[in-house]
Amino acid sequence: MDATAAPVDTPPVGSAFPPELHAGLPSGVGTGTFSTARHTTGYLSAGRSGDPVLLLIHGWPEFARSWVRVLEPLASAGFHVVAPDMRGYGTSTVHPQVGDYSTEEIVTDMIELLAHLGVSEQSRCVVVGHDHGAPIAWNIATHHPELLAGVAGVCVPYMPPGAALTDHIDRELYPAAEYPYGQWDYLIAHLSLAEKIAEEFDADVPGVIASIMRAGSPRHLERRAPNASVRSRGGWFPDGPPRREPDPRVLDDTEYEALVASLQHTGFAAANAWYRNNRANAEYAAANATGGRLTVPALFVHARYDIVCTTLTTSLPEPMRRAADDLDEAVVDAGHWVAQEKPAELVAVLSRWLRSLGLAR
Hints:
This protein has 13 helices and eight strands.
């Protein structure tokens, strides 16, 4: 079966959203919903609706609330900050086919949402993406540059059409004979073990989130990422997740319960489907409007202790540097979950860059 035509388990029709999703939100953070004939997007927002839009796109396996610690501080810089639940997550539509989670479909969701928020060529916005949300942000920049005043990626650099992650692996840490895909082995596992991984994650969502969402540290860079051995292990956690308690440096109890409830509601098949459209995504990326270049002002935020996106000790950012007309870079001393682990530092980095563009107070 063509992977893009494979079915995705969806919540029962009419099933209510778990109350934990929005429980205990800060007073300055509101909720909203925008629907078209093709998709419904739920979102969180902060700031005044008349201010310039700052769109925050989350990655795997998160949801809008993953940005909650930065929403109000960024709004205070003069922005209408909007963090959507991406398709397959939170309060947004869980679509039935793997092909529904292609980059083109997801970018279209965001373009429709931006139009709803009043973004146009005369009223441009800034888009920030983290993890798998970063490729969505980069693709918005290369397909719809006329709508953007700037674009930023956190952890995952821009990869121009034709560039390959596997060309930038630390082969001292990941010998090719044993680790042909290096730390990116998990991406292949999402294709070859798709159903098994989704079932494994759905069987113990609390344990999965407690195990993967941990703070970074220098010692993590001295060992191989567990992502590099997913296929040889036969799954991420074939013997069950190793941790039961969340890391309070990343998720407090309320945020942990909200994320767990969200993923228990939607299931992991939809979230994982983002990784299963490689051919369609490559074709879409190649059909860009800029010749594959980042023509709008861009910022890349390195996470110093990210053991998968090791952008400070490998050549991974080089294709982005060659393809960008106006690129700034900054480093946050955090692991992969930057907005949760070091929200103040991320706000400071984004605010400095936005001020340098004359966009922030």
